[in-house]
Amino acid sequence: MLDKLVEAAVRNRLLVLLALAVFLGATALILPRLKLDAFPDVTNIQVTVNTEAPGLAAEEVEQLISFPIEAVMYALPDVEEVRSISKTGLSIVTVVFAEGTDIYFARQLVFERLQDAKEQIPPGVGTPEMGPNTSGLGQVFQYVLRAQDPARFDAMALRSLNDWVVKLLLMPVEGVTDVLSFGGDVRQYQVLADSKRLLAYDLTMADLASAIESGNRNAGGWYLDRGAEQLTIRGVGWVRPGEDGLRDIGNTPLKDVDGVPVRVRDVAEVAFGPEIRQGAVTMSVRSEDGSSRALGEVVVGIVLKRMGANTKATIDGVKARLPAIQQALPEGVVIEAFYDQSELVERAVATVTGALAQAFVLIVIVLALFLLNLRATLLVLISIPLSVLLALVVMAWWGLSANLMSLGGLAIAIGMMVDGSVVMMDNIFTHLSRGDSAVKGKVEGGVALRIEEAAREVGRPVFFAVGVVVIVFAPLLTLQGVEAKLFTPMAVAIVLAMLASVLVALTVVPALASYLFRRPLASRPNPLLQALERGYGWLLRGALRVRWLVVAAALVLFAVSILLIPRLGTEFVPELEEGTLNIRVTLAPSSSLATALEVAAQLEPILMTFPEVTYVSSRIGRAELGGDPEPVSNIELYVGLKPQGEWTTAVTRPALQETMEAALSVHPGLLFSFSQPIATRVDELLSGVKAQLAVKLFGPDLEQLSDYGARIEALVRAVPGTRDVALEPIAGESQLVVRPDRDRLARFGIPVAQVMALVEDAIGGVEAGQVIQGNERYDILVRLAAEERESVEAIGELILTAANGAWVRLRDVAEVRIDSGP
């Protein structure tokens, strides 16, 4: 079979050239479809279900939302795991499907089962929604929105611009599935009520919310004929946006007392205010003159790539849209990218390109010195790009991703890819250098026959040599789970490149050789080869004379290598130098957002003193919905670095991290964990926590788990080589608990629901409609004034009702205290 293939290639060399030209043309069409990613996406097939439950404690979120959703998801086919995270006001349920499940089919199954889950969730608690169709490595691009004049555009204005301008312009970009807004204040129209005024007019928070909602609606009355015209009937009763809206809400009537209307403004203050948030972003940057500058609070947008989309193409599409977005923003507002995975993709491509260039240079030197023929060298050089292109075209056709691992596989295979062509060309060169007597029969076209004969001689050895390499990498194709997603792309790339190289060596090289070599070559002695042969002969004769010594030395080296194996370090995957550091700072579990902001403001200047740092972005807590559900006691510091060749503080990243940790440790009570953005995401996908190694403990008692966890932490710290050992907090979040006394409530005739309504509506706030301006929608929130809920004592003094001429306060019928919750 191989002989016939070689014979057909030489005798039909014109067809081979035409096929090669067609292949190159097809490459230009297919290769742009190749997916370029920074790192293999190890995310399993998963669908997240997010539920916002404003103000609800973590215990209630678990019982009322997370558990019902989990229960219905287990019945889905091909479900491997269902896990959840329940936090105050937020539930995130993750449904993991078996590998090979179509992601859109999985999302459809989850959507159908969500309808059953909604029936089990109490009304008004929260509405489950599926999360964006992205993966663990989907945060491919991040930008910052900042104001050149903070007095003109505050954090609330920047957040509105990001939500209603920037995000809407980025969503149509191919490959983008969502854009998370992080930081800033979400604008609300807030009605801050005075409980004493409400009581004086015999009004409740429910009356206030109901009146505002009733006074904020539009209506349609179909059509009205007017002569030859037809008029559309509209009733426009929406609250107007801006300051006019505040006046409209304030003028909303609540009731009539002795012919005098009582308006909202009589019992409450109406003003713009921020939504209750659990996250913020601050940033410091380095100017062109080398000085650092703190930007304070900014708004960050995180672009999420759709699962399976082309990372490089998605980022390029986002970058192409940025100039148009900048034009759409008001003067004085700037959008700037600060995190971009396309740089990693470009570095990975540059690595392969550099390996190709090095291979070209080495092949030119070696072949030129040994063959002393430029045409033979050229033929071998052609085989490398053809093999690489053929492998990439097959990957693009199959939808495989070209990432750090697969492109690294091509870089590894470059040295092996050229072997077949070198052997083929060397044998052809040898045959062409022989006399005419070497040709069997005097026929026209004797050179072509020599090339055909030479190719047939080495065809089988070349094929089986490549086959051995393919067989060596074949076990990697049988890996499953995370290991398969990491190493299979590399194995596939190498196998495809090797198969392509043997095809080129057996067909293209002989066919092109028959064109480039028209006559036999003159045999010339090669001084270099003669010198090497003489040296090898001398070395071989010496080794045979003292063969016992050679064997003994080999045995000693083997024994020494066996002894050194236990000291050989191992890694699951090599560390990728991303050019960005990710520093996780953990505060006490009860820390507030204001405390975290103060800590971030103290840490950023310390990091900016390092000349290698270009920016520091502090992400505190979490976004409103989507992304990592971190508490406000967690700060994620993104530290941008200059190219490693420009570093002066340290030569390597681990050394730089140690120096930074020593500088940051002047602040006691903080736990620092150093990593990189993609490495952190990969660690989290592997273990469920943001660490390279995690110990998980399961049990029903949180106190026992915390106690055993502390013991395990102490033991792990004592293990040599460990660093940044931390126990993930499962308790310690402070709570203000309002627990009604039912006997006292019965004495005053007050139902429990009235107390709970005070906690939920008056303190937490109740939505009373929206203010709509074009595509922008802002909530109207009704709650008590800040001074009435600013402390435990103030909340205890809240008035529930009047009984027997006296006010009944919350502290009279309920226990109000601070507790350490789970």
UniProtKB/TrEMBL annotation:
Q: Which Pfam families match?
A: ACR_tran (PF00873)
Subcellular location per the Swiss-Prot or TrEMBL entry: Cell membrane
Q: Which UniProt keywords apply?
A: Cell membrane, Membrane, Transmembrane, Transmembrane helix, Transport
Note whether Transport occurs among the keywords.
yes
Main localization, broad class: membrane
Q: What GO MF terms are annotated?
A: monoatomic cation transmembrane transporter activity; xenobiotic transmembrane transporter activity
Membrane-crossing ranges are 348-371, 378-398, 404-424, 458-478, 490-517, 546-565
Q: How does it sit in the membrane?
A: Multi-pass membrane protein
Q: Which GO terms describe its cellular component?
A: plasma membrane
Domain of life here? Bacteria
Similarity remark: Belongs to the resistance-nodulation-cell division (RND) (TC 2.A.6) family.
Task: Spell out the protein name for this chain.
Answer: Cobalt-zinc-cadmium resistance protein CzcA
To which species is this protein native?
Thiocapsa roseopersicina
